[in-house]
Every structure is written in structure tokens, then in C-alpha cells.
Amino acid sequence: SASPPDDAAARIAAGHIIVTATRIPTPVEEVLAPVIVIDRDTIERSVAGDAADLLRFHAGLDLARNGGPGQTTAVFIRGAESNHTLVLVDGVRINPGTIGLSALQNIPPSLIERIEVVKGPRSALYGTDAIGGVINVITRRGAREGWSAEVGYGDYDTRQASVNGGVTAGPAEFDLGVSWLDSDGFPTRTTDDTDRGFDNLSVNAQIAADVGPGRVALRHWRAEGTSEYSDFFLTPVDQDFETATTTAELSMPLGTALQARVSASHFEDDIAQNQSPDYLRTRRDSGDIQFDWVRSKAQTFGGGAMFASETAQSESFGERMRADTDTLNLYVQDRIVAGPHRALLALGYTDHETAGEEFTWNAEYGYAIGGRTLLYGLAGTGFRAPDATDRYGFGGNPELEAEHSRNYEFGMRHRLNPRHSLSLAAFRNDIDDLIEFVTLSFDPFAGENRNVDEARIEGIEAVYEYEAAPWRARIEATFQDPENRTTGAQLLRRSQESLTVAVTRTLGPLELGLDLLAVGEREDFGVPEPV
């Protein structure tokens, strides 16, 4: 998993350490990959309704939502496909094994301590899906914060309430968070006038204790409820959902320089239609062992192994599908910080039961100038193995190969003075063997999935930040060219330009804020051509 050992929790909460980019707690100034950290203070200032809303005011993240609260939400990181984003909750993968997206819309902000986003490939460390980037949602630990409660009411007859807290007893702690939301919503289609609602009950709990020099923890997160929408024929329908993760973890120092972490996790993802027998179901059991060796102050060496056994099932219009898939991931990485030099090399091997063997890597180098400027260059590869629906669902093709990417980035981060900072980055991501449904005749429902498309996303990002009490400001801008190299068209649901502005001012016990988002045109869907 990519959750932190407990001795790093205080520094992480202070915003000095992140975990997701390297799988170990790392000072943010030493991380070369572009990262976004949305901390608890930012979450409390926001008026976000779910985890996806917290992401939308950041450069390089395109969101597409099919309606109001609880509706399916897609996240595109730097123009990559929505299923090219690996999503974790406390380090546990929640990407379903069937068709569909990770349920970010079902994670309430009241249960989130922070969100870490890493842009760019991380398949060397995490395996499949990490082409565009990784999103890691870390849940709250109430025993460290004390008890708190919220109630709210808003548009569309939206009602919500939450409580968070915990207790400690010697070396042990118990954390609990509960969140409830119910909304009448609004129509999910522009040609419809029927409100479609959403209800969600989420729970987060942890029991953790120090045992000798080590620490053990048992964590559970669950979201369940009902989401209403209108189908293609504008018929009101609804579905029940349930997503949950359960993890047992042991972290233990082995001597003065070696740290070991072992975890076992279980993931469940269920969607059941209430007007038909259609359903989607994923069950995934995984084990993870990780070793981190601090060889010196300048060098940290790490390695690990992950095994996952997944069962994916579905029924759609009377057609049933089931696929059992085992995956083994191995990785090693070496991180160096010596004087002005920053470097990271990571190598990954994946043995996917149906997609075969994949070798991936990341190579990163940075050079600090005068303590205020960092120049860096990044390169890496990623892949996405076809999911069970790609292989055995509608248009299924068991012979599909994995999708592959090659990513390059060059950038500069500069602190003008203690108040002002600026970063610039240019990136390019080439993605081959994209899986698309190909019609084989003029019947749009006759065809199969094939590795036929190629994409190239080139772009630049700029971020400016200002902080001097009582003012804070952040401006982020992205210009990119997300191109389907096969057709020459702009990739669907991705914009070429976006601009976000966030300004806050503290007035004694009060804080005023303004967030603005401007996004260029995006085509929502296209019509495939027969071949």
C-alpha cells in the first residue's frame, strides 16, 4: 500500500511530507514529479460535495460529470484517458475490474484528511492503470484531531451531516468517521426535466496500536447508497452502489536503517440496477510487502512485491460475464539527494494473467541552484491492462494487448522570495495500442474491441503562488493538445486550455475565499466510423 507509517503522520499533516510519489514518506521539496496536495485546511475552506469536486480547481485535471451529486465522474490527468488514472483510498486500489470508473463521487470531503495527486506515469511502482497519474485519498484519523460534527443544507434539497473523532488508550487509538448525504439532484440529461437524486452513507474506521517497535493497524472504509439517473430513452432509473476497502497492516523497523511494511487488503465494488437484473461486481484480495533502506542521508533504496487476485462479474442485457485475474507486481527504486542533485530511478515488473509481462521504469533528475531554483527532467513508461469488460463484455476481445505510454517532462520551480513562487513545465505523453470499440459494419452494435488508436498529448503548465498573511493566492494554467493520432481529432471530453484562480483572505476568525475555473471547449461524444 501507499499509506504512511504512523511516525510520519505529524509531518505529513503539516504538509512537509508526501507518500504517493515514491511510496515512502518523502519531503515535498525533494519530489521531482509534479504533485498536488489538497490538505485538510483546504478541504474545510472548500464547498466541495465530494472528492472529485476537490480536484477540479487544479491545472492538468479535467473533470466530466454526468449530472449532479453522485453521478458518474471522470478525471482526465493531463489529457490521458479517465481509466488511465489509478485511484487509491489509503493506498488501496479502488479501480473496478469491470467497465466503469473509480467512485470518487462517493467519497465525502468530511472523511478526507488530504488528497495526493501525482501527474505522470507511476506503473513502475503501482502496476496497471497508472499512465496519466495517481490519486491517493487519505482518510481522517479523528483520535489526533478530537471530535467534530457538521450539518448542512443546500440547493436541490440537499441535506448532509457528518461526525468525526476518536479515542486513545495508551499505545492504541480508535478513529471513526460517519458521513450522510441525501439530495434530490437535478436532471442528468439536457432533454429531460426529471430530477434525479442521490443518497450516500459513508463510514471510515481504524484501530491501530504500537506493538513493541512496530505498529499494527486495521482500517475500513465503506460508501453505500442509491444513485438515480435517466437512461438513453429518458426513462427514470436508479442503481444501488457499494464500495469498500479493508486493510490490515504491520510496519516494523528492522535495525536502524531498514523499515518493513506488510499489508493485506480486500476491495469490493458493487453496482446493481433496480429496474433490471443488470449488475457490476468486483472482488479483489491483495497482499503487499515493502522494504525501505535508508543507506545514508543522501540515498534511500526501496523494493517490494504486490500480489492481487481479482474476480470481476457483470450482467448486461442478459449477457453475463465473469473473469478471474491474478497479477504480480515487483519493483525497486533508488532515490538520491546529494548537494544540489536530486535523482530517482525506479524499475517495475508486472505479470498480468491475461495481458502478459510488462516492464516499466521512471528516470528523474533535478539540479538545485542557489536554494531557490530547481531544474528537472523526467521520463517514464506506463501501461494499462485491458479490464474484464474489455475482454469479455460487449465487444469483448480476449486477444487484446495492454495500452502503453511514454512520458517526458522538463520543468523549472523557482521561489522569487518568501512570498512568491513560480513553476513551469512542458510535457509530452505518447500512448499506443489504445483500446477502442470498432464497428465492423454499418450496424453500430456489431463490432469488437481492438488495439487500434494512438494518442499524443503535448502541453505546458504554469503555477504561481503567493502567501503573506492575511492573503493567499494561487493561479494555475494549462495549455495542451490532446490529439488522437489515428484520426487527428481532439480527444473526447478533454479541453485544450484551462485556468484556475484561488484567492483567500483571513479576517480574524473568519476567512473569505474565491475560486474561479475557466475551461476551453470539449466534445462530449463522437460517432465511430466502420472499418
The biggest beta sheet is recorded as: 19 strands, antiparallel
Q: Report helical residue fraction.
A: under 10%
Beta strand %: over 45%
- Please tell me what the overall shape is: globular
Low-confidence stretches: 6-14, 526-531
Overall pLDDT confidence:
92
- What structural class results from the helix and strand content? mainly beta
Rounded to an integer, what's the Rg over CA atoms?
Answer: 23 Å
Total strands: 28
Distance between the termini: 43 Å
| Count of runs of 4 or more consecutive helical residues | 5
Notes on the protein architecture:
This protein has 531 residues and is mainly β. Helices cover 5% and strands 60% of the residues. It has five helices and 28 strands. The chain has a 19-stranded antiparallel sheet. Strands 3-8-9-6-7 form a five-stranded mixed sheet. It has a two-stranded antiparallel sheet with strand order 1-2. β10 (148-154) and β11 form a beta hairpin. The radius of gyration is 23 Å and the shape is globular. The two termini are 43 Å apart. The relative contact order is 0.12.
